TrEMBL record:
SUPFAM superfamilies: Translation proteins (SSF50447). InterPro entries: Ribosomal_uL3_bac/org-type, Transl_B-barrel_sf. GO terms for biological process: translation. This is Large ribosomal subunit protein uL3.
Length: 112
């Protein structure tokens, strides 16, 4: 429904709200323009999108067990098809930040 797919609000649960608490509610005006504009949120198919996860580390390849060990999360169900390819964007690991000391004598870090 629209509540899960589009994060739509629910109708009131009391004061005669009826059994339609997770429905879409009003869709638009009546006589003019006499239609619903394109892009209006509604219920429909949700999920099964192709997802690309970048820069995961291949830890080990075991041809005997026909297994590739990857560090990181892989989306999809167990037993699903996974395509591996070289990364286009290179990930640069940054070291720890170096502390900076101000040369301004008014700042506490410059007083020593």
């Amino acid at each position: 429904g629209v509540v899960k797919r589009w994060n739509a609000g629910r109708t009131p649960t009391s004061h005669g709200g009826g059994p339609v608490h997770r429905h879409a509610g009003s869709m638009g005006s009546s006589t003019d323009p006499s239609r619903i504009f394109p892009g209006k949120i509604g219920a429909g198919h949700m999920g099964v999108e192709q997802v690309t996860v970048q820069n995961l580390d291949v830890v080990k390849v075991d041809p005997e067990l026909n297994m590739i060990v990857v560090r990181g999360a892989i989306p999809g169900p167990k037993g699903g098809i996974v395509y591996l390819k070289n990364s286009v964007k290179k990930f640069v690991r940054k070291g720890p930040a170096t502390p900076t000391i101000s040369t301004n004598p008014q700042k506490r870090s410059a007083r020593g």
